[in-house]
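[job 0412] stage=fold_complex status=start
inputs:
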Amino acid sequence: MIAYLFLFLIIAATIAYFIASRRAVAIAGNDARGLHSRPIYHGLNALVYTAIPAFIFILLWLLFEGSVIDMLLMSAYPGADAMTGAERDLLLSEIRQVAVGNIFREPTPEITAAVERFHSLNATANLLLGAAVVIIALAGAGLAVTSVSKRFLARHSFERSVTIFMIFASTVAILTTLGIVASLLYEAYLFFERVPVTDFLFGIRWEPQIPLREDQIAGQGAFGAIPVFVGTILISFLAMAVAVPVGILSAIYLTEYASPRFRAVVKPMLEVLAGIPTVVYGFFAVLTVAPALRQAGISIGLDVAPNSAIAAGGVMGIMLIPFISSLSDDAFAAVPQAIRDGSLAVGATKGETIRKVLLPAALPGIVGGVLLALSRAIGETMIVVMAAGLIAKMTVNPLDSVTTVTVQIVTLLIGDSEFDNPKTLAAFALGLMLFIITLFLNLIALRIVRKYRESY
Amino acid sequence: MSSAEETIHRPVWDSDEMAARRRKRYAADRRLQRYGVAAITFAIGFLFLLVATLLYTGASAFVQTKARVTIDLSSAEVSADDLMGAPWRNIVRSSLLALEPTEIPRSDRRAYFQMFTSSAPFLVRDHVIANPDLIGKSFEFKIPFSDPLDQFAKGQISRDTPEDRRRVSNQQIGWFDKLQASGVVSKPFNWGLILNPDSRFPELAGLAGAISGSFWALLVCFLISFPVGVAAAIYLEEFAPKNRLTDIIEININNLAAVPSVVFGLLGLAVFLGWFGLPRSAPLVGGMVLSLMTLPTMIIVTRAALRSVPSSIREAALGIGASRHEAILHHMLPLSMPTILTGTIIGLAQALGETAPLLLIGMNAFITSPPEGVFSASTALPTQIYIWADSPERGFVSRTSAAILVLLGFLVLMNGLAVFLRNRFERRW
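[job 0412] stage=fold_complex status=done
writing structure:
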């Protein structure tokens, strides 16, 4: 249905384009200079007027169609007023399943009636949509075609449409941010209605189970996020412990010591490390690094957990090396050559120049880069989902297994789409914390980097 | 005067003390250099270790151990009218028994049949449905061995392991050796890895669903993020007035580029699935989430490309009477298109490897048929890797590595295309 409507719009818009531009040519007669706008703009204007309003209408319709039909179905269903939200959802999904022919058990007469109603509602909706789209498209086409005249500012009209689209496009970024903030705040608010904020922020037990039955022994879950934060900090710290020294040292070597040829070969190779998807690093950590560390631990008498923090953190550090290296690279490159020459001229060796002059001068840029990398480490998901643990432990032992914010978000939400229990809502509360922390780190880092750039 | 001069301590540059000091300073310099080399070696070494591990574990999944059997359909059991209902199980079993010259006692048959994939009857059935002229004839067909035997044939399971600690019994090894001696065992290239959809059985699992799921998601991602990103970039670079609102938009775009990917997944879950009610696990939703993630990249790339076009082009167009829109859409944009396309491909390559947001919107479902479009449930390449990495069967380890190699292959292709475009078409002014 929708596909046919789109096809109709494309054909109608093309026809409108030709009619309008032909008409413009006909009006102009022999003297094309009499027209304000060239015929092609009359055509394009007609094309926009035909297709775009109808297209927007279809999108809006699709957005609301489902919920309106649900509402109508429920209002006609006997006894629907007394149902809870979850029961309604279950009933609706059963009606939809039956409607597409997936019958698991004999439907009750109420459901059969609802299914019939669903089909008739759908048919009406399709008819209404089709009629509305045809009317809107034809009205737009008619308006554009009749307004073709010598004095009509078709180019201005078309360019205004283009500008409106461009303005809309630039607000998509803002809408995205608003969407993120709104959804996180809303779902987190629902969570904090059930679990007090203080319990979440300062509690030291994280056991996000929920009782399936009323009398279950596992009982209420505990949603104290401190152990999860501790795990996140531990793994991020381990990652930075690998990435910062290796990244900065390789940047120093590449900018100050390496020959141009060496640099031309090695720098792209380092950048390949940044292009590898994180799920690949996660698999690598599980398959190679974690068992190797465990073997090494056993051989010197240490007990290393199979999903130790050090394996996840170390592999994450490797992923971050090119990130730190290229940002430090930029910071070194921004230090003026004159400062370097001055230091060398008073007899400092290259190493002394780097350590005593270059590093202090480039430090703000490097710190900014490290903060950006830290925010990445905190938000990194797949490596820890695959290689870190699931159980929240209050420990800073890198050989032990810890969990992180992102791991908890993913494990709480995988396979669940019901947003009506604290377990799934907790994921959004964690997501809100993650968003706030990374936003904060990014803002500081960007400020440091920008301030530093202005100083030379 | 002279006595004052004598009290000033002048270093004697050629003294032993100074020479030692110099040596120390040079040594420190060399040490720093060595640390740098060590750091680079560490990073590059890990890159090679990563690739080597994947090649080592993944290579074996590109071949599949199969047995050549003769399927005899000359009996009247199979009619063209009821191909689905024909006794395929018995047909396949009797063909498999025919491979073994000595009679296998009934009590051992179970172990014998377990050597081959349990889906063999369906494979034969589908083959006959696709080639109806085979009905009533006898033909040769290659049946995959089941995962334990496949691993054994590839040397992943050793003969020397005690019998109770491996999944292949001595009896099965005996049969397998006989089959091998009779020449029916072969290891052809495993087209199933690319052409089959996902399966619970490693010997049949393939990436067809994941590849087409990724394709649909990337298509949606491109269709949204390319026009929106280019339009936003043109507006911000060429038209936007300098005011608070545009400042906010710019800061916003920079921040959006650094938001963790899992947060975009939460957005998709809450807004696209929860509020808009779009279908779960659909490439449409995956593509929409990915497009929001690639949008900042698109905008930044396009703005840089537009900025690199010399302003003389714009001024020349304006000078002969073009409107601002015409100057940009007819002249500046076409000239910067190669750079924009290069950036787009690189952005899409990043989107192809994104996993976490797709997990949250449910693209990690177990689905045994490739998606028919953007609305049907599907997996994507990275989520398929995640699913297989989580599967306990031994055969999935090498399949995961192979899937990663396929994913990396696509990434190399896309980046190669980007580099080619840049070298071939990009203009330096």
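[job 0412] summary: The mean pLDDT of chain B is 87.
[job 0412] exit 0
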